[in-house]
Amino acid sequence: MISMDEIVSLAKRRGFVFPGSEIYGGYRGFWDYGPLGVELKNNIKREWWKSMVYEREDVVGVDASIIMSPSVWEASGHLDAFTDPLVECKVCHKRFREDKKEEIEAHEKEHKEEVEWTEGRSFNLMTEVFLGVTEPKEKAYLRGEITQGVFTNFKNVIDSTSKKIPFGIAQIGKAFRNEITPGNFTYRSREFEQMELEYFVKPEDKEADSVFGEMKKLRMDWYLSLGMTKENLRFREHGEDEKAHYAKRAEDIEYNAPFGWSEFEGIHHRGDWDLARHKLAYKDPETNEEYTPWVLETSGGVDRSTLFFLIDAYTKEEDRVVLKLHPRLAPYKVAVFPLLANKEELVEKAKQVFDKLRLSFHSTYDGRGNIGKRYLAQDEAGTPWCLTVDFDTEKDGKVTVRDRDTKEQERVSVDKLTEYIQNNLDR
Ligand code: ATP
Fold it and tell me: Are 246 and 268 in contact (CB under 8 A)?
């Protein structure tokens, strides 16, 4: 199995993820995505939106603001109940989540088991911000989950789209949590992104159970369709004592990470908790029946997915490290090289090919070093195809296409390259 050190080091070396505020020594729980990371993360979000919104007639999207009226958080229960149980080590005053037994045990080992802990106490995860210019400033919160912005727009969406129940609202955006122990690279951050679908149904068990089951399948199939290894994925149902304050039922999708099986998406039956708390109801336009819908939700973490797609794709071979990312997720789809960087005619032709391909696919050009080094760099970036313009290109109108995973090479006509790449992206 690969180690987190290997992932962190590749992420830094190739420009996927950098520590936040690094030139000031970093800032715990915050990370920046580099040139390749932003592409991978955007590709994940785009694929998610395509599958959850564009391919369905019953889902529309919103993009709500990060700071909302504090009344929203009072009503949603987050100011009272969005808490983690916290214990403090009496020796070094480090704080841990009482429910994260492995972290507690690891810390006890560090102190050779001679540790005393404080009594557990609740610690609210909402991040406070202060607005206005005169004292006392107005206290507000950065959203702890993106979900509430969907509920506050429930009526607006119905009025503006004429959607009828059952239907869903999707959203992708940043959330913030004052996590006690950020760690495991980007896995537990204080600022992160979520991608969520809130699906509204009639308050009936049969309907809710069926949507819950469909959601589980839909989400698992999505990860598999983008190349995640089946054996590294599983569902885990929450016990009564670990469910969030809003959840009637909850199941996580977990990934077999180097630091153990870890949640990266939650499928939740939120019942009528949120809409009832916001005093929102639904009136069926045909039957005039009024009721508070139930909500089935799937809440995925963009950063955790990005991390697990990276880990899953990371492959060590005898002579190279290769990121076998699904081509649709790969930051660059193609890299174009001239065989020799000092031959004007090859460089000119390679640049022509590059200029054409970049109109359709995110592409890169590399004329440095030798071809072997260029392949190694593109393998670590996860680029599925490297195209080389050589001395035969002028004669036969073809370039050498080298496949990232098999290292096999074939000659493809310059005229057919766009079609070739498109077909392979969709395979
Ligand atoms: P955990 O138990 O790991 O703290 P959670 O059960 O509180 O997570 P949810 O509230 O269900 O998480 O949030 C839904 C998703 O948001 C999670 O599955 C995860 O992908 C993402 N997420 C939550 N907290 C964080 C965080 N601190 N850093 C990165 N992603 C997060």
Answer: yes
CA 310 to chain centre: 11
Query: Torsion angle, CA of 336/340/346/352, rounded to 10 degrees?
Result: 20
Given a contact cutoff of 8 angstroms between Cβ atoms, the answer to whether 83 and 123 are in contact is yes
pLDDT, tens digit, 9 for 90 and up, residues 257-291: 999 999 999 999 999 999 999 999 999 999 999 99
Domain spanning 332-425: which CATH class is it, in words?
alpha beta
**What DSSP state is assigned to residue 262?**
E
Q: What is the pTM of this model?
A: 0.93
d(CA 363, CA 354): 7
Backbone phi, psi, residue 362, to 5°:
-70, 115
Query: Which protein residue has the closest C-alpha to ligand 1 atom 2?
Result: 263
Residue for token digits 């260029």? 374
Tell me which of 100, 125, 192 to substitute to probe ligand 1's pocket, judged by most ligand atoms within 8 Å of the beta carbon: 192
CA distance 339 to 415: 19
Contact 145, 244 (CB under 8 A): no
192 lines ligand 1 (CB under 6 A): yes
Instruction: For the domain made up of 4-77+125-313, give the CATH fold.
Output: BirA Bifunctional Protein; domain 2 (3.30.930)
Region 39-47: what's the mean pLDDT? 98
Q: Whole-angstrom Cα distance, residue 166 to residue 57? A: 11
How is 130-172 classified by DSSP, letter by letter? EESSSSSPEEEEE-SSSTHHHHTTHHHHHHHH---SSEEEEEE
State the average pLDDT over residues 230-248: 90
Instruction: Give CA angle at 317 (38, 426), nearest 5°.
Output: 50
Which two structure tokens, joined as six digits, stand for 53? 């919104």
Which residue bears the tokens 């071809």?
Answer: 371
> Among 197, 263, 297, which residue has the most ligand 1 atoms within 8 Å of its CB, making it the best to mutate?
263
Ligand 1: does its nearest atom lie under 6 Å from the Cβ of 301? yes
Q: Are 108 and 123 in contact (CB under 8 A)?
A: no
Give the residue whose CA is nearest to atom 3 of ligand 1: 263
